[in-house]
Amino acid sequence: MGEVVPLIFDKKTNDIITCGAIHEATKKWAIGTVGTTIFVYTKGDDIPKQISICKDSVRSLQFNITGQDLLIADKAGNFFVYNIEDQSAKYTKIKAHNSPIEVAKYITDTIIATGDSEGHLKIWNIEEDKCTQKFHDEKEYISDIAVVDDKTIGVTSGNGVLSLYTINRPKRRQYYAQEDDDFVSVTYDPFCRYFICASSRPKIYVSKHPSLDFVCEASMKSTRPFVGVSVLKTNKCRAVVAAENGTVYIQDLHPNHLIYAWQAHKKDIHGMDLSGGLLLTWSSTNEVKVWDITEKRDEEFLSDHKKKKLKKQGKLPVIAKKKDTFFDELGDGESD
Questions:
Q1: Whether pLDDT at 28 is above 80
Q2: Gene3D superfamilies given for it (predicted)?
Q3: pLDDT tens-digit readout, 129-176
Q4: Structural domain harbouring 265
Q5: Residues 146/154, Cβ–Cβ less than 8 Å
Q6: Domain assignment present for 318
């Protein structure tokens, strides 16, 4: 077990950060800003490439599978596929939506899903330069999209609904609704075949694919809203969850065990993105950090008995550099 989660990038920007994306294989990460500029960093290089293609604030970013292209969406309802090395747009769709785009995701390299602030979901074939499907099942904003395979996606909305869609099928296949809550983020675990949704209540909800039957829920005893969730690619139902108070949790969800937690930002976290073992987090105070959580990906759950034994031996790992609070419930607390 490692002592702390290694921090490999830590920078404060002059711009308000709205979204971010990271790609483990190429060691690149990108942040979008309210001022329309996108900054793309490469590990070991403090000087970022700048992309100025958006017409309004940047709302969504995602690298393609190779890390060479960046899918960009903005508040004006436009989206772009931008080649980072050539520094040129491979594809541009102006006014793809009449409302601000909240999220854009690759389904394949040529099929893209976009969702806006009014609940409209659209599927695009960029090779044919056309929208192939439109849905408007929920009237609240679309918060996130999780890709299951090249034909299936799970979509969350701000009224606490997870919807299942199949490419080229005219209607929504299935949905799961959580009353009196919202969903801010969703991820898909291919090993367990579970959707994992994060809410601002704060709660984590797990449901089966494709039935969307409820499996379990977790809160990690946080009192602040969750802002992001992403599954770790392991043979366990394990996810990374970011909370608004600056805490990041690594949590087994079925069965429900806290594996690790640390104060990633002193004040808050505004968003997160995960690629392999690299975690990107950003705050409302314009801090950008990249963490290497590779060692924590397959770490075993420690029972109370084993924790006490390790503590006596002085081998219990710590959360932060300042104090040993590895298995504190953390809740709403901030580091000194």
A1: yes
A2: YVTN repeat-like/Quinoprotein amine dehydrogenase
A3: 999 999 999 999 999 999 999 999 999 999 999 999 999 999 999 999
A4: 140-269
A5: yes
A6: no
